[in-house]
Amino acid sequence: MAHEESRYSRQVLVSWIGEKGQEAIMNGTAVIIGLGALGSTIANILARSGVGTLRLVDRDFVDWTNLQRQGLYDEADARNSLPKAVAAKEHLVRINSEINYEVIVDDVNPGNVERVVAGASVVLDGLDNFYTRVLINEACVKLGIPWIHGACISTYGTLATILPGDTACYNCLFPDASSMTSPYTCDTVGVLGPIAFIIASWEASEALKILAGRKDLVSRKLMWLDLWKNEITSILTERDRECPVCAAREFPMLQQHDRVMTSSICGRNAVQVLPDVSRGFDFESTLHVLSRAFPVEFNQYLLRIHCGEHEIVLFRDGRAIVFGTSDPKVAKSLYTRYIGG
Ligand SMILES: [Zn+2]
Question: Chain-centre distance of CA 295, in angstroms?
Fold first, then answer.
């Protein structure tokens, strides 16, 4: 297949890839979870690189605020409110029609996460919340699948590559992540387009090393980059020998199949969202950050914001009622976007 050789020829010429590495890449499967700013660019790069199968996973749809930094989408996708996984595949097929695509339009939760990552050569983080990263970490450690954590907000971002049984896992790095909520989301403090493209490219590069059979070349540090300050730092990471996930192999979050996070409120076109805030919820910080982005009505018990056709009422303990929808997935997505996750 002469045209395939020419398509990938510049990548094959990279000395540590070569023909053998390219063949491994073309036999590999990459699962991209979250197809926003990070995931859409990761998918673009990995499709062009010839990764054999791309599994595209996202629960959200394209809107106008996405176009500034989510490199695969265009105005028609936003106008049509296409699910991101569907829109991504439509664009990717035009970029590379010779690889396989699997589309999953769903929320990732304890009940499906092992199925979502099954069979992957590598899993890439395009997420916007801690909870799902903790789930992915447990599933990937349990199944022995390498995964790449990336995140960005405002003008900075982080990256860590996790090789189960070898490097520190996400729980070694962030042991409190499962109960963390952050008032800082890209919908409250923003995100600079270039930082998303850089972190996404960095994740894709780490994935290509793994796919090409060169795990020895991945980063063993937690990397941190701030584009506005032109600062780059790294911390050498170490496994926690008492880590409940990668040492004891207990996987507590995977077992929380019955955790109730959302419930529809009958007859009111509203859904209640119950986040896990066992370590406390910082209402004042959330109010402060939201007030800088939106008109916020509040009293000592709750705050209320209007976002498009929806309205969110947030109580001091972190519980919220999302009005204007009866779909728990929509309510959970709005909660993550505006309150944090
Ligand atoms: Zn660990």
Answer: 28
Site of tokens 């109010």: 287
Instruction: Give residue 80 CA to ligand 1 midpoint distance, Å.
Output: 42
According to DSSP, the residues that pair with 236 across neighbouring strands are: 221
> How many Å lie between the centroid of ligand 1 and the Cα of residue 254?
15
Ligand 1 centroid from CA 247, angstroms = 6
- Determine the distance separating the centroid of ligand 1 and the alpha carbon of 77, expressed in angstroms: 39
Encode pLDDT of 90-126 as tens digits. 999 999 999 999 999 877 888 889 999 999 999 999 9
Helices marked H in the chain — which ranges?
Answer: 2-12, 18-26, 37-49, 75-79, 84-95, 113-117, 130-143, 170-173, 193-211, 283-293, 328-338
Tens-place pLDDT, residues 276-332: 765 678 999 999 999 988 899 888 778 989 988 999 988 888 888 898 998 888 998
How many angstroms does the Cα of residue 245 sit away from the middle of ligand 1? 5
Topology adopted by domain 2-236: Rossmann fold (3.40.50)
Ligand 1 geometric centre to CA of 332 (Å): 28
Q: Report CA(159)–ligand 1 centroid distance (Å).
A: 16
pLDDT digits (tens, 9 = 90+) for 19-66: 999 999 999 999 999 999 999 999 999 999 999 999 999 877 788 888
As assigned by CATH, the class of the 262-338 domain is alpha beta
Percentage of the chain modeled with pLDDT above 90: 65
The domain spans of the chain are: 2-236, 262-338
